[in-house]
TrEMBL record:
Pfam families: FitA-like_RHH. Signal peptide: none annotated. This is Antitoxin FitA-like ribbon-helix-helix domain-containing protein. InterPro entries: FitA-like_RHH, Ribbon_hlx_hlx. Residues 4-34 form the Antitoxin FitA-like ribbon-helix-helix domain. It comes from the Bacteria. It comes from Miniimonas arenae. GO terms for biological process: regulation of DNA-templated transcription.
Length: 77
């Protein structure tokens, strides 16, 4: 199911830029804006991505810096 969304007081120049982008993509302004809103809604925010990365990093075993140095040195020999 979908709903109608109204955005009031959009500056004319902003509307013109969006209409031009819609035309370049071969879409109506309504279709173009709907696709942009769907993309915006499902694109994760940077803060969400960072939180996911931190949770993942916390689940990994701790690193021993000296073991890494020793492994790199062994690989070079």
């Amino acid at each position: 199911m979908s709903v109608n969304v109204t955005i009031r007081d959009v500056p004319n120049d902003v509307r013109d830029v969006l209409a031009a982008r819609a035309a370049r993509s071969g879409r109506s302004l309504q279709e173009y804006l709907k696709l942009q809103l769907v993309d915006l809604a499902y694109r994760p925010l940077a803060v969400e991505v960072i939180a996911d990365l931190r949770r993942h990093a916390a689940s990994l075993p701790p690193l021993d810096p000296q073991a890494l140095i020793d492994d790199i040195a062994a690989d070079r020999q």
